[in-house]
Amino acid sequence: MNLSQEVAIHLRMGESKLEIVMFPWLALGHLIPYMNLSNELAKRGDKISFLLPRNAEIRLQKLNLYPNLIKFHKLTIPHVDGLPYGAETTADVHRSLESLLATAFDELYDEIKSFLQNLKPHFVFFDFAYWIPDLTR
Description:
Blueprint: H1 3-13, E1 19-23, H2 28-43, E2 47-53, H3 54-61, E3 70-75, H4 98-106, H5 109-119, E4 123-126, H6 132-136
Parallel strand pairs: 1-2, 1-4, 2-3
C-alpha cells in the first residue's frame, strides 16, 4: 500500500489523532498549499507539526484555522556562502540564488532527523527534501 492509499483509507474511516509532519520547500507557493492541506487534515482531528522558516510564520499564521492542532516549528535556515544573511525563502533571494537556498535546505538534515526521531510521526509530507525517505525508514 502506498502513502496516498493509506491517507485515503484514513480519511474514509474518519480516524483521527495521527501525528503528521509537513516539510515543504522554502517558497510561499509550496508553504501555502501545505497549510491548506494541514487545515483539511486538522479538521479531522489530526495533529500537524508544520516545519517552516522563522520569517514565514507571520505569513502563514492567519491561514492556520486550527492552531490547537497545527503547531508551527520554526527552522533556523543555515547560512551558506553567497546567500544573503537572513534569507529563508525564495521571496528573500534572486532566482539565481535559489540553488544556494537549496543547499541551506539540505543542511537542515540533522535538525529534521532529530525532530523526526523525537516525534515519530505517522506521516511526513515533503517536497524537494530527497533525503526524507531515508530518515523515515
